[in-house]
Amino acid sequence: MKKSSISSIQSQLVIYFAVATLVPAGIATLVGMKLIYDQVITRAEMKTLSDMNSAREIYRNKLSQIESIARLTAARSLVVNALVQGDRTFLQKDLPKVLKREKLDMLTLVNRQGVVVCRGRNPATFGDSMMSDLFVQRVQQTRRIATGTDIIPHPSLLKESPELAAQAFMEITPTPKAKARTDKVETSGMMLKAAVPLFDERNEFLGMLLGGVLLNRNFEIVDKINQIVHEGEVYKGRGTGTATIFQGDLRISTNVKNQDGSRAISTLVSDEVHDAVLSEGTRWVGDAFVVNAWYITAYEPIRGIDNQIIGMLYVGILKQPFDDVLWGTLAMFGGVALGGVILTVIIAVFQARRISRPLKTLEGVAQQIADGDYGREVIIHAPDEIEHLAKSINQMAKKLDVEKRELEDWGNTLEKRVQERTDEIKKIHSQLFRSEKLASLGKLAAGVAHEINNPLTGILTNSSLLLEDLEIGDPKRDDVEIIVKETIRCREIVKRLLDFARQTKPQKKLTNVNVLMENIVLLVRNQASFRNIEIDRHLEENLPDILSDTDQIQQVFINIILNAAEAMTSGGKLIIASNLSKDRQFINVTFADSGPGIPEEHRERIFDPFYTTKEHGTGLGLAISYGIVEQHGGTISVESCVGKGSTFTVQLPASTADSGGK
Ligand SMILES: Nc1ncnc2c1ncn2[C@@H]1O[C@H](COP(=O)(O)OP(=O)(O)OP(=O)(O)O)[C@@H](O)[C@H]1O
Ligand SMILES: [Mg+2]
């Protein structure tokens, strides 16, 4: 999923880049091609039109050439005289000569009435009227030269000569896209014609000389157009320039070639051009498929002497060269665009990798961070934004690391604190428990002691008197002595019980612990039980006094010292020390002996009343001491290591009224 999202950044970049290049490149190519196409075609059409002008000029040239020949011949006095005198013999010799020399198809002399005097082409046929001929009518009316194109009907052609009629005869080839024609053959011909009037010396109108060239199957003009306009240029085996003369809609003279190389005459013009040029008399310019190739063409009407449209002049240039230029340009444009796209895609791929590779690295590091490894630092070379992202991730990882450690530390401290609090609560709880226990035991003990005390006093008094009364050596004396001794012991126990249960408040006065301690040591040192015990004192000087009941505190200290001595029956060392607590609130007195120590399981119980491990012990020493110290607002505690010794610590509040006094 993640992988595909990164690779999709790459493919998206490539697509965007490609589209961003392809679309403008495509539009530029299309617009460019359109502009170029329009330019090329416009130029080609303009060239066709200028070719048309040249073609028309060549056509007219031919006409004026025919006119000149007719004019010069008509001006010859021999010809004029022969006409005046009716000398047909001369004319029958002379006119054929001129016709041949000047390559005319017709040279016919007609008299004032329009009757044929002599035919240069066919001298044997004469005497027929040519008044139906438009040119003859025009010259007769105007006495001026008439020049132009004319349609010669089949009978007239026949009169001129059967060969001429045969030259004009054409079987119409069915042509697709052409207007349908009912007739299958064309028998009339189209001729360039000039009619020149003849006058005598008195300028009397005598008749006229008609000269003409048949255009059907006569390729002189179209070939000349091709030669002059296109200089016979050939493109890929095909002539680039074409010219055609139409008689009506029929091709009668052309240099457009058929597939077999023959000239493509006898076909018809397309319907479209027919309508524009022959019907409406306008010029037509545009692309046309002529015989077997596309041409850029121009057609214009050829008009007869009476201004009737009788045919068309056509020029066309082969479209192939222009198309080739166009396709070449398109290929070039396409190549450049394709090259651009390829280059863009390569850049896009490179750029996309430059972005996606560091992203992948970042993804990996982010995953490691998610897995709890904050130690990895990302060092990447990438675009600024991604480098900033990497820096942020590094910072985040560092912060997470620090915070994690802090959290762990805090967790540890919390555990320790909870433990401490729990211990404290346990301690307080056990102290409370013990205090309550001692209080209720104290009440019981006090009641019992009180009840026992009086009878005991009675027993002791009476047994002592009885002992005094018995003589020395009396066998009863030993028993009475035991009664007295045991009763004393009982009284001692009762006394201690009363001590333990004592409800009275301590009579407090300022006491110096060190002084008190020195006295106690002096007191106990000489006792038999201390013979093998070394007592060391480490008493801190200038301790503040304590506010206490001196007798009671002395009793506490003696209890502890006696216990130590009893623990070290075969000798040892007792270190007594005093000092001020760091907060100067308490005075600590410690008693460290080198006795056997107290096992863990007994340690809890030694402050309990009647707990003792000694044969004659009461188990009240420490219980009484605990009560006294508690009454003084202090604490008593023990630390012990089995086999090494025990240390009792009594902590009493230091007096604030006097500090440092002795
Ligand atoms: N310094 C010590 N070393 C080892 N055990 C001790 C020490 N002090 C006290 N004990 C133990 O604590 C018990 C209770 O002491 P406590 O002073 O209350 O009573 P006792 O000494 O046994 O009897 P009594 O004090 O009446 O003679 C002792 O029996 C002894 O087992
Ligand atoms: Mg004791």
What would you say this structure looks like, in words?
By secondary structure, the protein is α+β, with helices and mostly antiparallel strands. It has 2 domains: 1-355, 2-Layer Sandwich (Beta-Lactamase); 505-662, 2-Layer Sandwich (Heat Shock Protein 90). Helix content is 53%, strand content 20%. The strands form 6 sheets. It has a 5-stranded antiparallel sheet, sandwiched between helices. A hairpin with a 4-residue loop joins strand 1 (106-111) and strand 2 (116-119). Helix 1 packs antiparallel against helix 9 (320-370). The longest helix has 86 residues, at 384-469. Residues 658-662 have low confidence and may be disordered. The structure holds adenosine-5'-triphosphate (ATP) and magnesium ion (MG). Magnesium ion (MG) binds next to helix 13.
